[in-house]
Amino acid sequence: MAALGWLTPRRRSATARSVLAGEASAEAARKSSQEVEETSAAEPETPFPVLGDDKAAAFFDLDNTVMQGAAIFHFGRGLYKRKFFETRDLAKFAWQQAWFRLAGIEDPEHMQEARDSALSIVQGHRVAELQSIGEEIYDEYMAERIWPGTRALAQAHLDAGQKVWLVTAAPVEIAQVIARRLGLTGALGTVAESVDGVYTGKLVGEPLHGPAKAEAVRALAAAEGLDLSRCAAYSDSHNDIPMLSLVGHPYAINPDTKLRKHARQLDWRLRDYRTGRKAAKVGIPAAAGVGAVAGGTAAAIALSRRRR
Fold first, then answer.
1. Active site residue: 54, 63, 159, 267, which one?
2. Could you tell me the pTM of the whole model?
3. Are 277 and 254 contacting, i.e. CB atoms less than 8 angstroms apart?
């Protein structure tokens, strides 16, 4: 009996402790739920972009961020159509563009070659002439290559009453045409030297690339009275990490491998609007399709030469 007497109080005590534990757990859950509700009510997520924030602006890279491919290559195609240069130069533009689309990143050597080619092509031509032709080339080669998703992001900033700027290594004349046609505020781009309205074939300073973009954004923000911590920047390339790091709201758009890794480490927002992302790695038919385009261009060039 003594053993039974010892067991009975313990059984009752255990039951009491279980009830107490259950009640305590329920009370903790209730309090936690109330705290979450109170926090949510007190600190709602701030919509972005913020409507009417005139101290904020958005800065968008162009190539492969706003537009598929590189603007300078599309511009080169348009100039070739207008007999600005010969067929052998078109082959170089075609292969550079095919590589750019496959790799999805900016190769400094390829981009430099493209800029050098463009500068030699426009040398001796009037600035006004190139600006006019740029409007036509946009309609012919660029308009259909604008990423709708990125365009919507830019429009959200415009709808919030903020200024939106393109920031690109492409010639500023091309960038300004694209910005105007998209209804954006303006553009920062590489400036080609001109004397009396005629291109000399040289640059003013260096291409607006990498750290130079960050300096341009910093200078523009100071002139416009912007608070960079409230601004946003968008790019696909790790080369633009200096620009993205300047602002409070950096976005990786269609990011290359290095930028994707960097963005994840810093918890930056990512958006990918490519239907066949990383085609060269995961989609052989898609990659082959790009190669076929370049190959077809090369074949057409070869046929053109034989007919001369």
1. 63
2. 0.69
3. yes
